[in-house]
Amino acid sequence: MNSYPAELLVQLAPVMFVAGLETSRTQPSSTVASVERDSSNDVMPTTPTTPSTPMTPATPIAPKARRTTSTDQFALLTHRLREVLAVQRKPGIWIPEAVRKSKTFQVVFVDKAVQFPPRKLPDPTSAQQLRSPLSPLMPTSPLHPDGIVAPIWIRKHSTLVPSVFVLFMRLYEHVGTGPISVPRSPLEPDGPDVQRAREEREKEERAKDSELAQEIAERKKSTNEREMKLTVVLLASRRMLDDPALDTRLTFIRRASGLDARAALFVLSPVSPAELTEFVKSLQQALYDPALEYYTAHAKRVRRKRNRHTQGTSGPALFPLGIANAPARPLPLRPEGWTVRYEYKMACFAEFRGEDEVALKHYQDAYTTLMTMFGSPAILPPRTKRWAEAKVLADTINVKICKLFLYNAEHALALSQLNVHLRRFSDLSARVWGIGEDTFEYWSWLARQHRVFAELLEQGTHFSLTIPVHLPAPSAASSSTQPQQDIEALRELGMNPSTALMHPGFYYYIAAGCTEKRRLRFLALLGSEVVPQSGAQAPGFQNEKKVDHLASILELYTKSYELFKKYSAAPASAQNQMQGRFTLWIAYRIAQTYYESGKYDMAVRFFERIARTYSREKWGAVLRPLLSTWYSCAQKLGDVEMSVRLLAEMLARGHSPQNDEGPVAEDLHAVLKSTVPSSSETIVVDLTESEPLFNSSVVFWAPEIKLDEQVAFQISLAMPADVNLCGLPISTLRLYYLDDFVPIVLRHVASEKDQGLAVQRIDVGHVSLSTENDVERQVDASLRWQRDGTLVIAGTMSSDTPRELKFTKAVLSISEGSWNIDLPFNLGRRRTATVSSPKWLTSTQPVQFIPIRRSNASSAVVKHRPHEVHVAFSHRPPAYLDESYPISIDVTNDDDRELEFSLDVLLQPGDDDSLNYILIEDEQSSGLIKGISYGVLHPGTTACKTLHLVSTSSAGERMLDVSIQSRTVLPGHPEASPTNEVLQTLVIPVVAPFKVKHETSYTHRSSIDPGQADLTTFDADYWDDSVGGRAFVVTIFECVDCAGASSVSIESVKLNAKGSAFSKIVHCSLDEEEFQCEFMPGDQFSVVCELSLAPPEDFFTDKDAVLDKTGHFLLAWRRLSPSGDPGIVSTTQIALPALKPPLDGLVALLNVPPIAHLHQPFPLELVIRNFHPTRTACPMISLDLDPSDSFIVAGVRNGRLPTLIPGAEEKVIWRLIPLDCGPVVRLPKMRVTDRRKVAEAADTASGIAPEVSAVEDEVRVVDVRWDRRRPDGSDALQAKQEMPEGDNSRQRAADRRFTIAVSPV
Fold it and tell me: The whole model's pTM is what?
């Protein structure tokens, strides 16, 4: 940015003048240092005193010593104030946002007697009018008569005229010459000497204060003329702050000097650095608003002037005959110029105030008007002084606009402003000014614009500016709209760099390119035969001769290179990879510039680093000119070995050096003949990462061979069309196949019979890869290729150990005199991009090839002879759950060698969480069992291992991966024994051995509740099953019947209770003796269990609650083989079902004796229980006795029972005398109801009270002899009645309810 005046680019800030802080040059530095040490603990030096009585005077202190200490304190305070104020805000082009938004000033230190520049001077041409010294209307102004704005105007407001003036002055403090007396008691009056001393002191202070006020008043007069704020800071000691007369003195000074009442007078004493920083911060905050008012007043004044000029605008002066007819005397500034001047001034004042948006608008208006002026040569004639000043002004305004856009992170607008500026000036240069792209002035200006913009971005990135990353956005989510998806798809297609803000290195690179074109245009003008006299004598052309163009180009490219490296050092991505490659291109341009400037050694250093990457990534189009320039540098430096290396590499790439029409091979041969190397060492030119020297291919006839078996191979070396090795003295060709073996060496021997052949075949014989036969194989052959000729090297190869046979590389050696050059290159690579299948040469006369249709024909694998092994599995599917299922694994050695076998078994995890495991010998695992040895088997022998599979939880398929490894043990080399493996997978179906079905029914408790008053209910072992009742569980076991199922011998069946707190087993139908029986598939047996239930109190509040873990059956069983042999005992655990007793409300339980005798009375009991959790019951009972009934009843016929609260019960007893005999005599009918009152819903609209009605609910009477319920509360016997009519036994059982058998006496 040094190309433009700094005043036009710097960020403007409020200016504060600070006077009165001049440092004393006569004061020794040691004194300040000592004071700083004394005040390091924030304790100021004070006058030491000695306590004494009121009548005893204290020890006197010398006034000189006290004055020296005070002077040192204020010198240190002045020094610290200058340091703190100087760092508040420094001028700069890019200011961070935190500094811009803070209330800080640009501080300028001045003398107390500083004078401001005159605001207006009398106009010599008009004695009655005053004008600004910088106005274009002033004859003595540098802008007279048609200048717009000069940098001196910005300098005036940033360094010569402040917005606020801060004056630091020392407040006078009286220093007595006599001894300091101890103050008297407040109650004791002062003596006449004390009063006289006080009056003299006050008189002296008033005189000093008057002088101080007069000095302030004079400065106040000068600041009032400029309408700027004056603030005075009085420096006083800490002792002075405690003086009661301080406020009176300050009031007098302020009124006498005419200072404002607000933020105009401060008092500062020597304080610590932290407190001093806070004081400066508060001082700036107090003066910031007056500073803004100062610049606002200036802006209003400028706006009024602009409006007056706008209203008085006259038409432009027209010169129809062209610019040549314009008057010789310069015309005054036109209205457009005044508009630019005033808009620019208002933008500057807005920038002083920190109003960036207002400044941006005025800068844009000034720029637009300025573009209008440039469009008319009559207003701004080209190549004049005012034209050059306006051009600089336009460029700096453009920088200001771009910077303000970047402040707001509006990158697109900033870049658009730059592009518009470049486009407009390029058009004006070519169309109006005659400075087109064929002139160096145009490219100089264009390079300057890009450089300034790059420097602006670079300064911004040092603070808060973030360069956007232009990466493709991630794929839009499913919720994105279709237009957004279309926009994202278009963005992924690419972008125009001119519309996307890049990092500064990009614009430095453009500036360097423009500078290169500037140099070319200048050299073309300088080297032309006819140089226009006007152009040769022009100041611009003479100045251009002094410019070091190559130094500028190197500087710009170097900056671009460093920035590209910085921004490409981020985490790896596609964009960073592209930037890394572009960094190499910039390095190449730097090397080219070094070459053009004659610094060949520096160019070679860059070429060495660049060529390595370009060669590896195969950038041939860039590498060819690089090598040519590099070769020219080597020639200039006289480095013969480097020249030979570069010629060899250019030979491999098939192109000629720069400005040389001869082939590379001839140049290389000529250099080898005419020079000698500096050392006898062989020069190695590594071509493994560059373009291949030959179009080569390696073909093995077979993909796989056995040990000691031979396989044929062919290596084809075809010379590309752009490579010519005919004239080179090739001595040998070495072929490397493995690192541990010596290569095959082909020595050149001239042969006449091979000349003229397009395809030459060389047979190298058999190559044995064994340590005993590892000798160098040399073959004589003609190594002189014809152009487009092919050399085919054929032979056979074998190996005594397993390995991969392939050729790794080849080395072509060139020998001439003392020169020995090796050219290593990879085999199997081609220059052409087309993929062609490898070919096998079958005949040379005529030449015939056959294609090899194989994916990897460039290598062959040597393997051991496979072992002959037979593996058989024996088992009887399906497997049962909980069974140790045996699987026999038989291994037979069918080979003619002794083999050692081992077994690995992997049990694959199932889809569920079932726990399965396998056992073999002493090993057990739920996953892998490895290394089970079969031992060494002789040929024809068989060994067997039994694997046991145990499956639990759920049925399904179990998968086993079985691996049989066989190994031939070599004597003395057990680790080198070849190993073969046989892999097989077994899928074992697993089924449950028993199908289990549970039938559950529930009954009420028939016994009477002991009642809440019974003390036994409080015992710890009390069991209350009044609510839960009893549960009967019938479990039916059926042996599984499926394909392959076997008979089962059950050894025992046991029922184990788990000790649940809410259930216990009362009875089970299993005998205590052992249960031993054999069952065939499909056989069944059942077990009946009775359980007593005592659910918790909150059991019925949860509809999903159940009583689980009530017990389980343990079945010990054996699987029987088809011959009847029992297997291993297995144990199966079957849990009882989860129980959920139904909930009843009010129920009546009828207890009937099992039998009655004729004409003998017997009791009939009816127990009514209220199981409802919240509702009280009011039971009513009635007994209907028909004449046809066979009983005489004594007891209640109709009546109301006591009210039953929840959980209560009531018992009713009748005595009946039977009159008839029979097995089934029906009892009298009885009816139980629950009578209660129900309130209907109230009508809130009418206000009528709800009606109460009586409701009777029928209560179910249960015969406890036939009490069977399902979990949902339905009657199990009633459900059995719905069975088909053929099942008469169940129907008869259901009909016996509410009956009794009566026998004769």
Answer: 0.64
Question: What 8-state DSSP symbol labels residue 1051?
Answer: E
Terminal C-alpha separation, the chain: 136
Question: How would DSSP label each residue in 322-387?
Answer: -GGGS-SSPPPPPHHHHHHHHHHHHHHHHHHHT-HHHHHHHHHHHHHHHHHHHT-TTTS-TTSHHH
- What is the phi/psi pair of residue 488, to 5°? -65, -35
Q: Which two tokens stand for residue 589?
A: 């341009």
Alpha-carbon distances, residue 990 vs 987, 1010, 1129, 1131 (angstroms): 10, 53, 17, 16
Amino acid type, 1: M
Q: Can you tell me the distance from the alpha carbon of 29 to that of 40, in angstroms, rounded to the nearest whole number?
A: 16
Quickly state the pLDDT bin for 312 (edges 50, 70, 90).
low
Length of the chain: 1305
Q: Is omega for the bond preceding 48 within 30 degrees of 0, making it cis?
A: no
* The dihedral formed by the CA atoms of 581, 582, 586 and 591, expressed in degrees to the nearest 10: 30
Distance CA 851, CA 1174 (A): 96
Phi, psi of 629 (to 5 degrees): -65, -40
Read off the pLDDT of residues 736-778 as tens digits, 9 standing for 90 and up: 988 778 889 999 888 776 666 788 899 999 998 876 666 778 8
Give 576: exposed, middle or buried? Use CB within 10 Å, 0-12, 13-18, 19+: middle
One-letter identity of residue 927: G
What is the rounded CA–CA span in Å between residue 42 and residue 1062? 81
Complete DSSP assignment for 633-676: HHHHHT-HHHHHHHHHHHHHHT-PPTT--S-HHHHHHHHHHH--
Q: How far apart are CA 664 and CA 654, in angstroms?
A: 8
Amino acid at position 770, single letter = S
Please, which contacts does 641-649 make with residues 24 or more away whose CB atoms are closer than 8 Å? 641/677, 641/678, 641/683, 642/604, 643/671, 644/668, 644/671, 644/672, 644/677, 644/683, 644/819, 644/821, 645/683, 645/685, 647/671, 648/685, 648/814, 648/821, 648/823, 649/685, 649/687, 649/690
* Contacts of 162 by beta carbon, 8 Å cutoff, 6+ apart: 15, 16, 17, 108, 228
Find out whether 1106 and 1028 touch, Cβ atoms under 8 Å.
no
What's the pLDDT tens digit per position in 99-135?
999 999 999 999 999 999 988 888 777 666 788 888 8
Decide: 149 and 369 in contact? Cβ < 8 Å. Answer: no
Q: How far is CA 408 from the centre of its chain?
A: 26
- Cα 244 from Cα 238, distance rounded (Å): 13
- For 252, other C-beta atoms within 10 Å of its C-beta total 16
Q: Say what the pLDDT of residue 568 is.
A: 80
Q: List pLDDT tens digits, range 58-70.
A: 333 344 444 445 5
Q: Using CA atoms, how far apart are residues 514 and 477, in angstroms rounded to an integer? A: 44
* Cα–Cα distance for residue pair 398/394, rounded to 1 Å: 6
HSE value, Cβ hemisphere, 13 Å, CA-based, for 466: 5
**Residue 759 CB neighbours (<10 A):** 18
The pair of three-digit structure tokens given for residue 209, joined into one six-digit string = 């204060």
Nearest 5°: the CA angle 1255, 1259, 1261 is 165
Q: What values do phi and psi take at 351, rounded to 5?
A: -70, -35
Helix (H) or strand (E) holding 411: helix 411-428
Q: Please, is 1093 exposed, middle or buried when counting C-beta atoms within 10 Å of its C-beta (0-12, 13-18, 19+)?
A: buried
Report the C-alpha gap between 293 and 353 in whole angstroms. 9
Do 736 and 688 touch, CB atoms closer than 8 A? Answer: no
Among the ranges 38-47, 970-979, 1187-1196, which has the highest mean pLDDT value? 1187-1196
Residue 1014: its pLDDT value, please? 67
Give the 3-state secondary structure of residue 632: helix
pLDDT per residue over 171-222, tens digit each? 998 875 444 344 555 555 666 777 888 888 888 989 999 999 999 999 999 9
